[in-house]
Amino acid sequence: MTATKRPKIADVAAAAGVSAPTVSKVLNGRSYVSAATRAKVNQALEELDYSKRSAPAPVPGLLQLVVNNFDNPWLLEIMAGAEAAAARQGFTLACTLAEHATPESWRKLRQASPNQLAGVILLAPHRGSRLVTTLRSLNIPAVAMDPQGNEAIGIPSVSPTAFSGALKAVEHLLDLGHRRIGIITGGGAGSVHSRARYAAYAAALQAHGLDVDQELVRDGDFSIEAGFRLGGELLDLPARPTAIFAGNDLQALGLMSAASKRAVSIPGELSVVGFDDIAQAALTSPPLTTIRQPLEQMAAMAVNLLVEQFGKAPQRPQAVELATELIVRGSTAAPAPK
Question: 336 or 264, which is more confident?
């Protein structure tokens, strides 16, 4: 007589219509499982006569989120989205600084057990990053979130629609009647975000029959300090702009401070648009009109792209873009009549 094959976690997952990590969480009494899902898993366990001893539950895997610094104004929102998505997939999320993410640390984690480091999410890595090269050499699944290079970064990526977002920002100012519009980009010529924002700015102007006036263009570094300094330069021009697209919210905050120092009223004498919709954007005086990035959704998508790689042969890296949204607040208005 042939012995009955003992059911595995995968069999229980298939019977319950859930993922294997979800079954593992139920078996180990972990949270993040709804009552309805837990009931379905328990029913499948009973019907299949599953014994926890028959197939040891896998150790929950670790996903690592690597960040360049902890001063990132979007980090908490990104972590919330990534942690929730990781928990739904049965993984634990850990956050670490890029300077501490070394080949030696990753190699030790992988040698201890593959589950000790299932995969890595890199936040805003640059094209040619040593981290990308190292992860690929160690065969560790990885995803880039909001990469600073281009689609050739070499691993799957998820980004906001930078061009269309910037286009919405500049078109909003044009629709209000502004024609002398300045821009503060950021990150230099090597930044995909800087190029996309400038390209959208130029395209929007051209669509309205306007040429780019290089006197109104400044290249910053996406910092408050750059917004203050370069915004001050634009405001000190003999014929200053009536509106400025600041490229990101931090530069917009610096620009608004420069305007306040010069007693330039917003939006009476100057309209300002940012990009990101960080928490401070709604708290400025006046509240900042900006482009909202779907940060939590981007983080969740990064986790999903990472999990999709597990157990699969390397494929052509997928580049996913999520839509941005114009959030109109009090920092923009029609230009003052001459």
Answer: 264
- As beta bridge partners, residue 122 has 66, 144
Cα dist. 70→65, 73, 78, 82, 123 in Å?
12, 8, 12, 16, 11
d(CA 20, CA 29) in angstroms, rounded, equals 14
How many angstroms separate the CA atoms of 178 and 103, rounded?
A: 51
Tokens 């180990």 sit on residue: 28
- Identify whether the C-beta of residue 23 lies closer than 8 Å to the C-beta of residue 37: no
Q: Could you give the CA distance from residue 5 to residue 247 in angstroms, rounded to a whole number?
A: 61
Q: How many residues does the chain have?
A: 338
Please give the Cα distance from 293 to 279 (Å, whole number): 12
Are 118 and 308 a contacting pair, CB within 8 Å? Answer: no
Answer whether 92's CB lies under 8 Å from 60's CB.
yes
Q: Residue 192: how many CA atoms within 13 Å on its side-chain side?
A: 17
| Predicted confidence (pLDDT) per residue in 111-156, tens digit | 665 557 889 999 988 766 788 888 888 888 999 998 875 556 788 9
The string of DSSP codes covering 40-91 is: HHHHHHHHTT--GGGSPPPPPPEEEEEES-TT-TTHHHHHHHHHHHHHHTT-
**133/125 Cα distance (integer angstroms):** 11
